[in-house]
Amino acid sequence: MNQKAIPVRNRAMTPQRLLVLALLLLALAAPFGIYPIFLMKGLCFALFAAAFNLLLGYVGLLSFGHAMFFGFASYVTAHAAKEWGFSPELAILAGVATAAALGLVTGWLAIRRSGIYFAMVTLAFSQMMFFVAIQAPFTHGEDGIQGVPRGHLLGFIDLNDSLAMYYFVLAVFVASLLFIHRIVTSPFGQVLKAIRDNEPRAISLGYEVERYKLLAFVLSAALAGLAGSMKSVVFQLASLADVHWHASGEVVLMTLLGGVGTVFGPTVGAFLVVAIQNYLSETGSWVTIIQGVIFILCVLMFRRGMAGMLGPMMKKRGIDV
Amino acid sequence: MIIKRLLMSVAALALSTGLAHAQFSDGKVKIGVLTDLSGTYSDLAGQGNIVAAQMAAEDAGGKINGMPIEIVSADHQNKADIASAIARKWYENEGVDAIADLVTTAAARAVREISKEKGKIDLISGAASLPLTNDWCSPTGFHWTYDNFATGAGTAASVTKQGGSSWFFLTADYAFGHDLQAQSERAIKANGGEIKGGVRHPFPNADFSSFLLQAQASGAKIIGLANAGADTINAIKQAKEFGITKSQNLVGLLIFITDIHSLGLETAQGMMLTTGFYWDIDDQTRAFAKRFAAKMNGRMPSMIQAGVYSAVSHYLKSIQAAKTDEGVKVADKMRELPIKDFFAKNGKLRPNGRMVHDMYLAQVKTPAESKGPWDYYKILRTIPGDEAFQPLSENTCPLVKK
Q1: Which positions in chain B touch A284 (Cβ < 8 Å)?
Q2: Please, which residues bridge with residue B30 across strands?
Q3: Model confidence over B113-170: pLDDT tens digits?
């Protein structure tokens, strides 16, 4: 290796890097032990929660309408793949673009308010989009868009093979998480945190706070859309459940359970919630009650979420997360 | 280097476990009952379907050619995405050979797509939409008990003939409701009736007041309910509270005996309906109903629940005859064998998967006529199967050769 090319960077295996590496290896080997569709569902929701966390954890904006980006992107992807014959990557891009555009419009209006009013404005938009999803003919109402073809990625990778599909989803997920990590550690991310911690001071320092907020909102919307688009390709289905406000609530739950403002928190929370839904689905309506009990316990016992609690614990033993 | 070696060993490990994971026939006949266990349709389908499927397995002796029969079940909550996730998991991971019931069209369609792709059998009893045996038909998919053509068109035609000449529809806003309304409208127009309009309500819905007021304002003689289960019950009860039933008649285009039980005869008396099964037709139906009721706290089987028994039991017989549980071969055998049980005296399967059997036109008894709980129907006429169901000449399923 060319040592000169990397002048001062520390290449040593810190515990933190080891942890990330171990997680990555685990993710690579997981589909051989665990049902791939379940893992893909978990990854899609983890990305959704990570996108939501970008807004809540780093800008301090609680959006209660993220399902509209998630769900609408999944409709657009499903429609593009099924009716227009788009290849999966183009269909997903179409979904992401739709979510970003939707994010731009709703964000432009919503960021003028903060706190509960921001949440209500986003909820209102999301309900409007839900109504569109019920009434617009292309969404097929209660039936959803079914039988979406998975197609061939880049023309030669057959996504009907669930392993190929899994590694594609995993790759997109890891890339998105790196992207989010890059955002929050960049100077732009520092400004976002400054806005979260003290908005008047950020304004007095000369930052155009609204622009920063809007960009963060659009990025979050686009990433949520990416998650929704992938979900519709994985399940070959886009349905009302993903635009419903329940989905907006669920992503809040996932993020809070995992830990707001942590890199891995939303992933932990998403997998926890998806696992509960998956493995306890035989219990029927009890699922929501069990979810509620877990949520109450989490809020009472570890207020910073699972990952948020693990961080300080590991720090005590000299591991920096 | 360490990373490279690690990656390689993980890849090797992955490959070896991949080989060990290869799919093989598991020496079991496993049937999944996928239904609504907690929502709008849990009364007319739900737990009763699981009991019916278990009874069919018991009556087959619990095993076929030495292979044990296993019944599993899950709640799809009337949602297509949940249904498709469960169906995928069952087929790919848990060795399920066939899925039965599938009440709610959206869920049925989702599972139909997956079953078709995987060459597995679906035995639809609960869902009603006609496209299941038309555009969405499948070589391994069957539609057992009834459909919107048989119940909606059957009832609408009889009511129109008896003087119900103008109609207004209250329709559940999803594929099933739209289809039921379309089938009924066709029958009404064919019999010289007039359509005054309609309104769509969300599914599921609890408050029908604004929709009922629109129906009242339309001035139609008949308010047709193109919905089912708890939605129908709520609409009828609320219409009675509003006093609408004094000037206009409500007609449920898809009524189950469990709905009548919930409404009570006082409210439901005189209503006309078309059904695929009634427990009190002959000794065979009574014998089945008695056994069923013993396991269900005295509740009699709805047509969907009886249909699940008939479908599962015909499926098991066909496996025995075909000597395999491979989907396509069993499906061929199912079409070949006639269906003779308490549910269908002379049933046969069409190429599009439609099970054709006699339907019944019934009227709900008055409280005075009824001898007790569950004694609810007067059978006015037996509709022969070929008249009750959609003629093959109108069918759009590509499997039907014309």
Answers
A1: 37-38, 75, 77
A2: B70
A3: 899 989 999 999 999 889 999 999 999 999 999 999 999 888 999 889 888 889 999 9
| B90 interface with A at CB cutoff 8 Å | no
Crossing angle of helices B303-322 and B283-295, rounded to 10°: 100
The pLDDT, as a whole number, for residue A29 is: 87
Residues of A in CB contact (< 8 Å) with B are 21, 25, 28-29, 32-33, 35, 37-38, 41, 134, 140-144, 146-147, 162, 235-237, 239, 241-242, 278, 281-282, 284-285
Q: Which residue of B has its CA nearest to A21?
A: B3
Identify which of A243, A247, A270 has the alpha carbon closest to the alpha carbon of residue A71: A243
Pure H helices in chain A: 15-29, 36-58, 67-82, 88-110, 115-135, 162-185, 187-197, 199-204, 209-235, 245-258, 265-279, 286-301, 305-316
B92, A37 contact by CB (below 8 A): yes
**Rounded to an integer, what is the distance from CA A160 to the centroid of its chain?**
24
Amino acid at B203: F
Per-residue model confidence (pLDDT) at position B1: 44
Q: What is the pLDDT of residue A283?
A: 65
- Which of chain A's residues have a Cβ under 8 Å away from the Cβ of B6? 25
pLDDT digits over A26-49, tens only?
888 888 888 888 899 999 999 999
Q: In this predicted model, what pLDDT tens digit does every residue of B249-287 receive, in sequence order?
A: 889 999 999 999 999 998 888 888 899 999 999 999 999
A285 vs B120, more confident: B120
**Cβ–Cβ under 8 Å, residues A257 and A268:** yes
What is the average per-residue pLDDT within A195-221?
93
The list of chain B residues with pLDDT below 50 reads 1-3, 6-24
Q: How far apart are CA B180 and CA B143, in angstroms?
A: 16
DSSP B358: -
For residue A317, the SS3 value is coil
Numbered ranges of CATH 3.40.50.2300 in chain B:
29-146+282-357, 149-275+360-387
- Specify the 3-state DSSP secondary structure of B33: strand
Q: Which of residues 141-170 of B touch A (CB under 8 A)?
A: none
Q: Does the distance separating the beta carbons of A239 and B79 come in below 8 Å?
A: yes
Determine the Cα angle at A264 with ends B84 and A224, to 5°: 50
Give me B389's structure tokens: 């169901």
**Which residues lie closer than 8 Å to B206 by C-beta, 6 or more apart?**
B234
> Which CATH architecture group holds B29-146+282-357?
3-Layer(aba) Sandwich (3.40)
Which alpha helices (H) appear in B278-372, and where do they start and end? 283-295, 303-322, 327-336
pLDDT at A128: 93
Q: A124: distance to nearest CA of chain B, Å? A: 19
- Under CATH, which architecture does the B149-275+360-387 domain have? 3-Layer(aba) Sandwich (3.40)
Q: If you measure CA to CA, which chain A residue comes closest to B2?
A: A13
Distance CA A11, CA A237 (A): 44
- CA dist., res. A224 & res. A48, Å (int): 5
Cα separation, B324 vs B329, in Å, equals 7
For residue A10, the model assigns a pLDDT of: 57
What pLDDT score was predicted for residue A13? Answer: 66
